[in-house]
């Protein structure tokens, strides 16, 4: 009964989100969502920081609000997973955001079948102010020993995802490549990803992660934004992740 209730809650929440009812950071590469989904029963805590490091405010220096995220693996079968998430963005007036993701596992339906992710994130609580409402679909395939390739598409709130002229710039492509650098260590991972669009989200990002233990890892990366007049100067990102 408990599992059935959890499954119903997960599906209902996912449906609500994909209809724009509700931002949180889903399981990601460096910047964009990945096709990975938290296993059922896993509670994932992440702390993401984006900063221009030593650049002064007069030169465009800034720190994005620290993002403290909680993602829970809510449902899992041999074919699919569902995760639900909530984020708190430090020192903002409307700090709560939500996300959800449904993933179909790679090779689960047949040999060579890609991983598929359908989800939404950055669903804020204030319409047309924090409700970016980004929906996406992605396909990913691992080609050993080269790595994993991901391609996808996103669309968001056209009132908030705009260019410097104020015209809507609310959709685009998602691309990424990632791999475990086993030649060096099974604990070392590399990724590069890209989100198109001359808006607050468009960026090229790359970085590496180190897994300190089975449930603790950290990422250091760099984000270069497509439209700095909106997104700000490029940032260094440091992300800490822990699973319970």
Labels describing this entry:
about 240 residues; mainly beta; twelve-stranded antiparallel β-barrel; 2 helices; globular
Low-confidence stretches: 1-24
User: Any idea what the shape is?
Assistant: globular
Beta strands, count: 12
| Helical segment count | 2
Which range does the strand content fall in?
over 45%
Radius of gyration: 17 Å
Helical content class: under 10%
Largest sheet: 12 strands, antiparallel, barrel
With strands numbered from the N-terminus, the spatial order across the biggest sheet is 1-2-3-4-5-6-7-8-9-10-11-12
Distance between the termini: 23 Å
Return the string of H and E elements.
HEEEEEEEEEEEHE
Mean pLDDT: 89
Molecular structure report:
39% of the residues are buried. This protein starts with a helix and ends with a strand. It has a domain at 2-171. With 244 residues, the protein is mainly beta. It has 2 helices and 12 strands; from the N terminus they run αβββββββββββαβ. The radius of gyration is 17 Å and the shape is globular. A 12-stranded antiparallel β-barrel has the order 1-2-3-4-5-6-7-8-9-10-11-12. Mean pLDDT is 89; it is low at 1-24.
């Amino acid at each position: 009964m408990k599992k059935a209730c959890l499954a119903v809650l997960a599906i209902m929440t996912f449906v609500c989100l994909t209809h724009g009812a509700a931002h949180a950071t889903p399981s990601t590469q460096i910047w964009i969502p990945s096709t990975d989904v938290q296993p059922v029963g896993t509670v994932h805590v992440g702390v993401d920081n984006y900063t221009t490091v030593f650049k002064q405010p007069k030169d465009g220096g800034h720190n994005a609000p620290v993002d403290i995220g909680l993602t829970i693996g809510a449902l899992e079968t041999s074919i699919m997973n569902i995760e639900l998430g909530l984020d708190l963005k430090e020192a903002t007036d409307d700090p709560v955001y939500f996300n959800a993701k449904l993933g179909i596992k790679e090779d689960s339906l047949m040999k060579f079948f890609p991983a598929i992710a359908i989800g939404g994130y950055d669903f804020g609580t204030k319409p047309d102010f924090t409700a970016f409402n980004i929906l996406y679909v992605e396909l990913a395939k691992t080609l050993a020993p080269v790595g994993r390739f991901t391609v996808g598409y996103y669309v968001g709130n056209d009132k908030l995802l705009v260019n410097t002229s104020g015209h809507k710039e609310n959709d685009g492509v998602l691309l990424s490549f990632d791999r475990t650098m086993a030649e060096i260590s099974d604990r070392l991972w590399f990724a590069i990803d890209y989100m198109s669009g001359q808006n607050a989200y468009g960026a090229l990002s790359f970085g590496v992660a180190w897994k300190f233990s089975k449930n603790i890892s950290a990422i250091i990366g760099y984000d270069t934004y497509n439209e700095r007049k909106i997104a700000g100067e490029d940032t260094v990102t440091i992300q800490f992740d822990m699973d319970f």
